[in-house]
Amino acid sequence: MDSHLEAYQAIALDIHDTPETSNHEHFACGLLATKLQEEGFEVKVDVAGHPTGFDARYQSKARPTLVFLAEYDALEGLGHGCGHNLFGATSILAGIALKQILDETGGEIRVYGTPGEEGGENGSAKGSFVREGFFKDADAALCVHPSDQHGLTTPTLANDPVDIEFFGKASHAASATEEGINALEAMILAFNGINALRQHLPSDVRINGIITHGGTAANIIPDYTKARFYLRAATRQKLDKISRKVENIVKGAALQTGTTYTFGLFQNRVDNVIPTSLFDEVYRNHLEAFNEKAVLRISLGSTDVGNVSQVIPVIHPHIKISDQLMAGHSLEFKAAACSPQGLASIGLG
Fold it and tell me: Which of 1, 9, 27, 154 could form a disulfide linkage to 343, CB 3.0–4.6 angstroms apart?
């Protein structure tokens, strides 16, 4: 593996230099899929409803079937500030390295290219892979995420990414206000209702939203407004209840103002990660064999690896790419993702 590491580091750098967002990762998808094909995998591109998704397989004998999850999308406006250029390269290297002994051990290796982990239109592709049955005959899924510290798999929050729209009636804001139906007033009521809800929510719930369209001119009663929210909770069951409460608030705002509304997901929902402690113990032991140590991490973020963890055992630890503490989704993280230490993490992972 060490003799081929530079090739995978070059792939990671190329992806870092060519950042692509959710479901537009054509360059990264092509680079990773081509490498897998060159190494003897059967590869299909454009799978599970994602043009930049791929399904790569190498089978020797019967099960077990192990799936390596590859991510390679960038953050809009920032680039690879989450290190997915390393994530994808590490996953294909792991799959290709394990393939070398598969004829002796038996089993099947798959690498799933899963676009849009960061979200967006048709984002969080692992949800699509689960829904379309890509894991129904798999035994376990593996991946490792870049970080500023080594860490084991941690529970994450389930996330419903929703759009809220109100539809009213435009009218002159001074001379014919009585003829208008104000969609912005409805949206403001919805925000205030959600703020009131927060005092009754447990500490593991997070609700964040922005108004993406609030009207066009101050002298026109707004006939259309739109907001985007992330609704998060510790479990899918809890989040389903929260989502219904938020929709009822939206419905109430529409009733108060005479508007109509829509409320719904703009991409795949994201489920909470269920850690597999036995997998993490193996990972911890291997880290320590390389004189590295995992620290306790607490995550209040979300990842669509959670969707996979609901149906088969997964491992989703974190691997250190910098000696400096740094926030994810930052310029510092982006720099670390193409640094010598970041590139070295591919081999360790």
Answer: 9
